[in-house]
Structure formats: C-alpha cells, structure tokens
C-alpha cells in the first residue's frame, strides 16, 4: 500500500522544480522562505509559516537576519527547520568574503560595495566591520568587530589594531551601517574615523577608507577627501617637534 502523501508535498515539489528550471525568477519572497524551510521539514506544509515569518519581519532580508530565537517565535518554525534559513545566509556571507579575498579591494569597489551591502544593509543595529589588506591592497580577511551604537567610547582602537596585527595587515578599510538607511555621517562617525586612523597610523597601518552603508547607497570618507585630510593632520602633528 502506498504511503499517503502529506499535504503540500506536490506544492513543494513544484517549488523545487521551478527553482531548478529558472532560479528564483518569479518567486515571491514568501516562496523563497518556504523553500528554505522545506529543506529540513520532511512532512509538513511550510507555506503558512513562511508567510507568517515575512509578515513579522517585514522583508526577506529581515527574515534572513532574524536570530534563531526570534524565528522560533513564528508558528511552524522550530530549531530544526530554521537551519535552511540560517545556513543559506552563512554560506552567502562566506561566498562573498571568499570572492574578495586576494583581490585588490581598491580596484574592485563595486564588488566591495556588493559585499558590504549584503552583509550590513538592513541590520537592525549598527555593525562595524574591518577589511584587512596586504601590502598590495589585496583582501586578507574581513571581520565584524563591534555591534551596537558606534561612539568614540564603544569602538576600541586597540582592538582594531590588535586584529590588524593578527592578520599581518598593511592597510585596512572600515565600514559600518546606518539602520536608518541614510548613510550621511554624524559627528560621532567623524570622531571615530579620526581616532581609528590615528591609532592605525601610529603602528604603520594605512587606512584607505571608511564606508557608511545605507539603503542601496553609501558615504565614502575617502571620496569626500576626509581620509586624506585626517592623514595630513596626523603627519603635521607627528612632524612637529617641541616648540614648533
């Protein structure tokens, strides 16, 4: 006797076939979430859980960025079937990081921005990321060092310098996000940039850039000349002897 097919089995089969034939083109966001939930839900319809998750977290990125605890507050999502959502986000993060590694970051600004947008945009809290470069400005690694409101008292220069020395970096690029979506820098952003640049320059590490990531746009401290101005200020202060 054939085993009874569970409710939704034909639907999930059609979803998988649709993806294999055309990728995610034509998929609604809830269908993307549903497909991910089915990876570890062998015998349950996941459509309503996917719609509920999207309703709660508002957007597909919002669902992907939600914590495991938050996801489990949605009916139909548990510690087992949320793995599809968390796994694909982790794989994408690693994939984009690997694409950057050993490439010249300063000559691949678009790829750098795509990476930063994916990993930092739509975050509910500010995150401060450092991209470490070798002497040829190729990416060695990228790390999120701080989370929360970024102020001169919450971003520790010694931690940035320690991480750069651990990676044997010759230069760095800073980046952080503005959850509001507006990348315009605050006075605190300028103070943090200056503080970090001075700390890095003291140990011979070059700061090329500080990018603030907003909603599909960004602000560049380098493009606006502020990094160059801070470097000139550092040189002036360190070349001035007593009484000069």
How would you characterize the overall build of this protein?
With 244 residues, this protein is of the alpha+beta class. The chain has two domains: 9-90, Orthogonal Bundle (DNA polymerase, domain 1), CATH 1.10.150; 102-239, Cytidine Deaminase, domain 2 (3-Layer(aba) Sandwich). Helix content is 47%, strand content 14%. The protein has a five-stranded mixed beta sheet with strand order 2-1-3-4-5, with helices on both faces. Strand 3, helix 9 (187-202) and strand 4 form a beta-alpha-beta unit. Helix 6 (83-100) runs antiparallel to helix 7 (109-120). The longest helix is centred in the middle third of the chain and has 18 residues, at 83-100. The mean pLDDT is 84.
Q: Would you kindly provide a brief summary of this structure?
A:
By secondary structure, this protein is an alpha+beta fold. The chain has ten helices and five strands, in the order αααααααββαβαββα.
List the helices and strands and how they pair.
Layout: H1 9-22, H2 29-38, H3 47-57, H4 60-65, H5 68-71, H6 83-100, H7 109-120, E1 127-133, E2 139-147, H8 157-166, E3 171-177, H9 187-202, E4 206-213, E5 218-220, H10 226-239
Parallel strand pairs: 3-4
Antiparallel strand pairs: 1-2, 1-3, 4-5
């Amino acid at each position: 006797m054939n085993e009874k097919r569970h409710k939704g089995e034909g639907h999930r089969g059609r979803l998988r076939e649709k993806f294999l034939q055309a990728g995610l083109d034509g998929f609604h966001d809830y269908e993307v979430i549903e497909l991910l939930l089915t990876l570890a839900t062998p015998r349950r319809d996941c459509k309503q859980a996917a719609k509920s998750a999207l309703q709660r977290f508002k957007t597909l990125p919002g669902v992907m960025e939600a914590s495991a605890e938050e996801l489990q507050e949605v009916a139909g999502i548990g510690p087992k079937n949320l793995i599809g959502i968390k796994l694909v986000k982790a794989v994408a993060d690693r994939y984009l990081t690997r694409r950057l590694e050993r490439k010249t970051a300063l000559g691949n600004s678009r790829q750098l921005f795509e990476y930063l947008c994916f990993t930092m945009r739509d975050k509910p809290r500010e995150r401060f990321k450092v991209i470490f470069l070798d002497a040829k400005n190729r990416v060695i690694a990228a790390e999120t060092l701080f989370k929360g409101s970024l102020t001169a008292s919450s971003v520790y220069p010694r931690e940035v310098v320690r991480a750069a020395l651990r990676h044997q970096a010759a230069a760095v690029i800073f980046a952080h996000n503005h959850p509001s979506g507006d990348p315009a820098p605050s006075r605190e952003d300028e103070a943090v940039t200056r503080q970090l640049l001075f700390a890095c320059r003291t140990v011979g590490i070059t700061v090329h850039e500080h990018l603030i990531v907003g909603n599909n746009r960004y602000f560049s401290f380098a493009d606006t000349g502020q990094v160059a101005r801070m470097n000139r200020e550092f040189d002036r202060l360190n070349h001035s002897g007593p009484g000069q």
